[in-house]
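Hallway conversation turned thread

IA: we were arguing at lunch whether anyone had actually written out Arsenate reductase end to end. Turns out nobody had. So, for the record, here is the sequence (116 residues) and right after it the structure tokens. Reply here if something looks off.
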Amino acid sequence: MSVKVFGIPNCGSVKKARTWLEENKVEVNFHDFKKLGIDEEHLTKWCNALGWEKVVNKKGLTWRGLDEKVKEAVKDQHTAVQLMLNHTSVIKRPVIETSKAIIIGYDEAELNKLFS
């Protein structure tokens, strides 16, 4: 099964997920948002699968640091995708994508279910 992990290497949740995957002998391809960015196609796919409200991390420092007008402008999937294209750090991390599922955030129970 092809597994792709999207995130930034110094994020605690990304580190936990990558460690879990490595310990469980799951080979992954890592995509660094900071270096490689992300395209609209992936963001739209994740939002369609999970809902844009789950993909945008409103608890993170990046979201809290945004101007109030920018935050208020995020009202639907289209505006959320545009925000995430411009501010990749606002995407909840990690995003783990396989042919079977998309998992967002570190969730050991979900990882166990997917890779057992």
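OS: looked through it. The chain has a mean pLDDT of 96.
IA: good, adding that to the notes. The helical segments are 12-23, 33-36, 40-50, 52-55, 61-65, 68-72, 77-86, 108-115.
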